[in-house]
Amino acid sequence: MDWLDKVEYPFRSNFISIDGNKIHYVDEGSGTPILMVHGTPEWSFGYRYLLKGLSGNFRCIASDLLGMGLSDKPEDADYSCQAHAARLEQFITKLGLKNFNIIANDFGGSIALSYAIKNPNNIDHICLFNTWMWSLKDDKHYATPAKMMRTWLGKLLYKQFNFPVSVIMPQAFGDKTKLSGNIHKHYKLALPTSKERNATYAFAKELLDASGWWDSLWSQLAPIKTKPFLFFWGMKDIFIPPKELARWQNALPSARVVKFENAGHFVQEEEPEKMIMELKKFFG
Fold it and tell me: pTM for this one?
């Protein structure tokens, strides 16, 4: 793709068919596998620094969820979190991943942990950042904007004006200078037209619709509670605030936590060097 900066994203593209759709992924390096699962409005491009920094020691795999990045974007697909989780399970099975580590953020946190909870013996270490796995419907911080996004205006903003990339993403950075025009372009052009933005709009609706699924996963946390956990958290995240980190800490008191006081929601874009250093120690 002529808009893809091969210096920023110098990886070989791979594709695998799941339910008749092509899923794009990057598979770099060798050794213990690390599976990186993104949220919205992201794709594997957001993990480029971690892919570069960790692939010398590990096999690093970052896929694009259906409807995102360089994966297919069918208009009639099921883009619910639960459907993404089912496709991720197929992806892991088809690649034959064994005893692997997880890095996940945002909506990707619950999508990845859904697999871990069902297959705890196949997971070694888990790293999460700025994510959640419980109902948000009774929290006005999320429910109020989520209800607005379900209206005709919200749909217009998402579908016609690429609202999550054009407006929400810049606001989500703690240090706005970290989102250069060239970097921002790679998120905009991955979702170029309204008919290719169904996945991001579905995530907006999932803020309320996935409540029962998240609560169910949260109640099943026990199988992975003894796993080594590492949490990164951008403390300037205005969308998933630090109160959510406290909830994780209460549930997983032995987890290691690294806070970035000046970073926002997309920690991997703002503090990649420090993340890489910590992850090398964590994964060992």
Answer: 0.97
